[in-house]
């Protein structure tokens, strides 16, 4: 063994140990490797830094931006809504839909981002139908991991291995080449989790702590309004059909605040902001809050030929994607002091309605609309989230207090959802047919999303997971150093000497097991960077095509089911699901073995050795 190879192996062992310990962070370890590798004499400083300009790194960064655009336009939230709606309260149906949605979406954006988005969705949906979250969270992480076996851009290891193939002069993988192996694994995983969820235990509760931030229901109860929410249907025969909302004069005259307008569309119901000029049409529904206890709602309904509808469930009393509730305090120097909400014309000036007033910690029970405000009063305001956010920047008139949890569900660019989907579809088609290099297509996609208003620059920069990019960029030159030191050839020769005369499936199985084992203790991206050159060397030594060996590494790198530290998506569901280390081992081991069988069974059939 040469000094150069020994030094590289020492760096590898130290890096693996630090990855397992988790201290320092993996991206810091990657930076330390970039600093240390030139001292081995195997690569120059410029070569050590070359990973930061690698096309796969640029592609991954661009895909983080694409994923954020889907969040900002509400595409991901629509998927969450469909999950709750279409499951119909059935745990089995919810599990199947959850895994299909999570895997399908993760196939085109960061699986870590998808899991982070879905965790609150799953918690909310599980709470509504009284399902323990631990029976769903494991399925979420498994589906997100399997998504790495569906498309080229689903996970960084796929792109890293594809880039290595192209660097070596091969054509690389097609966009959906992975699906031949991933789809059978996903189908089996869904059936498997339908059976295995019972072993996660119905009595085990998630270990999440209650949020300290208030929810809409908490705010309404604090101001004594929880029982004053009503939904009013407007039939075609009503005498207010065709009128504008401001012509009703409900707030100024009767102390009734219109929270939102519910309107039937082709694809379901939509909640509209109660704009003064909005015209009421037949079959609309008004969601109102009775700020004045003296208002005779039943008499108003009878007078105008309206109908009273069932109210919202207690857990979600109001729509909250575009319209918000928030507390704000009246400061001593505010121009609102001494004026009532009607006199201050708050609704017209700021688009905010005063639903309730708390004075000395007690709700005001009289006519809120005509109550003179005092310094120190706390107001319950409703209005567009964009207006509420602007209120945070201007504290002279009102001081905004803590935002409720529902503020996180605000979608700033909902009207551009169809545009985002169209741009995403164009990106997938371009990558499928190889119109341009994938990194270039992804960058063009980011520019298109920005031009069409689906994302802005600050959001784009915040969306990028710099830790992941630094990790990948730091590990790429390490693979080059290992190759120049002879480590890749040594590893390949060891495998060939041991299994070279065996059937190709034995060699593939060995490669799969080694890769999967490494990915249990270190980043699957780092594992792919290390194992890719070894897989290529094994293929060359056998005189075989490199594609099945590289695909084997890609599939094994996504088989990180067995430990919570094997992947960020496992770590994300660990606490909300209340899981232990043994839960991942118990559920993940049979699934990993099945994936091994699929890879070893199908690879020699799909690819010509």
UniProtKB/TrEMBL annotation:
It is found in: Membrane. It is a multi-pass membrane protein. Keywords: Membrane, Repeat, Transmembrane, Transmembrane helix, Transport. Coiled coil: none annotated. The keyword Cytoplasm does not apply. The chain crosses the membrane at residues 5-22, 28-45, 57-75, 95-123, 135-155, 175-195, 419-436, 468-486, 506-536, 548-567, 587-607. Pfam families: CitMHS (PF03600), TrkA_C (PF02080). It comes from Thioclava marina. This is SLC13 family permease. Residues 217-306, 313-397 form the RCK C-terminal domain.
């Amino acid at each position: 063994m040469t000094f150069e190879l020994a030094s590289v192996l020492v760096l590898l062992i130290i890096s693996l140990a630090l990855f397992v310990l988790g201290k320092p962070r993996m991206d810091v370890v990657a930076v330390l490797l970039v600093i240390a590798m030139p001292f081995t004499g195997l690569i120059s400083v410029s070569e050590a830094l070359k990973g930061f300009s690698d096309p796969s790194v640029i592609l991954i960064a661009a895909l983080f931006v694409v994923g954020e655009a889907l969040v900002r336009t509400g595409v991901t939230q629509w998927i969450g809504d469909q999950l709750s709606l279409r499951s119909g309260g059935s745990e089995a149906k919810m599990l199947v839909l959850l895994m299909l949605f999570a895997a399908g979406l993760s196939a085109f954006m960061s699986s870590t981002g998808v899991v982070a988005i879905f965790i609150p969705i799953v918690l909310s949906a599980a709470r509504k139908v009284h399902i323990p979250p631990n029976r769903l969270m494991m399925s979420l992480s498994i589906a997100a991991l399997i998504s790495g076996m569906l498309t080229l851009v689903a996970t960084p290891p796929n792109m890293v291995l594809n880039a290595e193939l192209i660097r070596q002069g091969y054509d690389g993988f097609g966009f959906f080449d992975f699906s031949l192996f991933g789809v059978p694994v996903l189908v089996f995983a869904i059936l498997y989790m339908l059976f295995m969820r019972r072993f996660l235990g119905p009595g085990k509760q998630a270990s999440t702590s209650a949020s300290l931030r208030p929810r809409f229901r908490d705010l309404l109860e604090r101001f004594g309004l929880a029982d004053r929410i009503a939904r009013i249907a407007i039939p075609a025969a009503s005498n207010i059909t065709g009128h504008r909302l401001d012509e009703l004069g409900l707030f100024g005259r009767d102390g009734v605040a219109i929270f939102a307008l519910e309107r039937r569309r082709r694809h379901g119901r939509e909640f509209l902001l109660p704009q003064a000029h909005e015209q009421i049409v037949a079959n609309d529904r008004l969601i109102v809050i009775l700020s004045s206890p003296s208002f005779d709602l039943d008499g108003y309904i009878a007078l105008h030929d309206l109908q009273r509808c069932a109210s919202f469930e207690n857990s979600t009393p109001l729509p909250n994607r575009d319209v918000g509730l928030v507390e704000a305090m009246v400061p001593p120097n505010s121009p609102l002091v001494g004026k009532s909400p009607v006199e201050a014309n708050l609704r017209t000036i700021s688009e905010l309605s005063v639903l309730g007033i708390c004075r000395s910690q007690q709700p005001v029970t009289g006519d809120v609309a005509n109550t003179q405000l005092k310094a120190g009063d706390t107001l319950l305001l409703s209005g567009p989230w964009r207006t509420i956010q602007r209120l945070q920047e201007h504290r002279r008139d009102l001081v905004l207090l803590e935002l409720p949890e529902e503020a996180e569900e605000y979608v700033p660019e909902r009207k551009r959802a169809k545009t985002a989907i169209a741009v995403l579809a164009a990106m997938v088609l371009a990558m499928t047919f190889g119109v341009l290099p994938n990194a270039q297509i992804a960058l063009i996609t980011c520019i298109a999303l920005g031009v069409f208003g689906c994302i802005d620059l600050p959001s784009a920069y915040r969306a990028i997971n710099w830790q992941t990019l630094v990790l990948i960029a730091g590990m790429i030159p390490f693979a080059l150093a290992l190759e120049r030191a002879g480590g890749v050839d040594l590893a390949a020769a060891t495998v060939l000497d041991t299994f070279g005369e065996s059937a190709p499936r034995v060699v593939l199985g060995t490669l799969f097991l080694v890769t999967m084992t490494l990915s249990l203790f270190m980043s699957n991206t780092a594992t792919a960077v290390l194992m890719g050159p070894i897989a290529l060397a094994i293929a060359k030594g056998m005189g075989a095509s490199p594609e099945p060996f590289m695909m084997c590494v890609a599939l094994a790198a996504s088989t990180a089911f067995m430990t919570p530290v094997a992947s960020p998506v496992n770590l994300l569901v660990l606490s909300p699901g209340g899981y232990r280390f043994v839960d991942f081992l118990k559920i993940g081991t049979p699934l990993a073995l099945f994936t091994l069988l699929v890879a070893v069974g199908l690879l020699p059939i799909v690819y010509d050795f």
